[in-house]
Amino acid sequence: MEAADLTKAGLEKAAWRTSSYTSPDGGNCVEVADNLPGVIGVRDSKNRSGPALRFAPDVWRAFIAEVKSGSFDVAP
């Protein structure tokens, strides 16, 4: 899985979106930019000027599918 810093290249065109569950202070959420050609940008919603990561769209879709399936859930 490629994860690369997007703070220099391509970030100026990113249209970031957050979950409707994100609190006004950013909470523990990430922002996603899926409008970039061939790449999905991801950054910390509490540190919008900080680094961002980029993932290939198929890798991002696989990650989201695993999250939705509960693969990363931790039992109490």
Short note summarizing the structure:
This protein has about 80 residues and is an alpha+beta fold. It is built from one helix and three strands, in the order βββα. Pfam families: DUF397 (PF04149).
Question: How would you characterize this protein structure?
Answer:
It is a single chain. The chain has one helix at 57-69; strands spanning 30-33, 40-44, 52-55. It has 76 residues and is α+β, with helices and mostly antiparallel strands. The protein has one domain. It has a three-stranded antiparallel β-sheet with strand order 1-2-3. The longest helix is centred in the last third of the chain and has 13 residues, at 57-69. The protein starts with 29 loop residues before the first strand and ends in a 7-residue tail after the last helix. This is DUF397 domain-containing protein. Pfam families: DUF397. Residues 14-68 form the DUF397 domain. It comes from Spongiactinospora gelatinilytica.
Estimate nothing, just give the exact number of structural domains. Answer: 1
Largest sheet: 3 strands, antiparallel
Q: What is the first-to-last residue Cα distance?
A: 29 Å
Q: State the secondary-structure class.
A: alpha+beta
Main attributes of the structure:
3 strands; single chain; alpha+beta; 1 helix; 17% strand; three-stranded antiparallel β-sheet; globular
List the helices and strands and how they pair.
Elements: E1 30-33, E2 40-44, E3 52-55, H1 57-69
Antiparallel strand pairs: 1-2, 2-3
InterPro entries: DUF397
Protein name: DUF397 domain-containing protein
Pfam families: DUF397
